[in-house]
Request: fold
Amino acid sequence: MVDRHKLPMRLWLSGTWITLFVAAALFAPFIAPHDPLAQDLLYTNLPPVWISGSEPGYYFGTDSLGRDVLSRLIYGARIALVVAVIAGGGACLIGSVLGLFAGFFRGWTDVLISRVVDIWMAFPPVLFAILLIAVLGTGLHSVIIAIIVIDWTRFCRVIRAEAMQQSRMEYVESALVVGRGRFGTMLVEVLPNIIPAIGVLLSLEMGIAVIVEAILSFVNLSLSSDDATWGGMIAEGRTVIYHAWWILVFPLVALFLTVLSFSQFGEGLKERFDPVLK
Reply:
């Protein structure tokens, strides 16, 4: 039995961080204290302001090229948000539509879509992503396409099961008996009842998209190393961890909290709307 009283706290905490993440991404030009690409070799590896040897205005310190870590962290949130929204939304749209058709109409439609999903999921996701980027070329658009192409199956399988369960309900049979067409019944009767499941999956997928982009940036398969990405900052910070730990720690914390918040927000929505848990 789920303790309903704990759900608002989980949703509130995760929702608060997601709100801060989105606000930082949207208003980055106004809140970032410095140009994230501006280099100043006189200010290399400066520590955060609360450590001796820091400089005013560089709150989270600087990296090995004198670039402001806080500004790069804020602009990195923009890249993460773009990937989360576009890649997560694209995978959600394709997978949910196919899963809805497969689960409701069943028959040859279900067989065809299910076989495609089985074949697609036979490929290792990481290797598949690297192969796609090798074909498409590096860049943010390639990362987004790779995530969509790989992760639509996650939505398809779950939504198919949900649609199949809903299509057996009495309200669907009643709609068909009174003369409503199958397509109209699917849109009007079935789709609204699986939207909560879609919302949960979308929240989880957005977190996955953020971490996939960070991984690809870490191995220099996303944007160039000069651009402000959390994965690129982590890759740079790894080489100087012993004398400039802040370059690694701050993007790691931001990435961890963002992915965790999307995950917990999705789990909270699931517990809040899942009729079985209710």
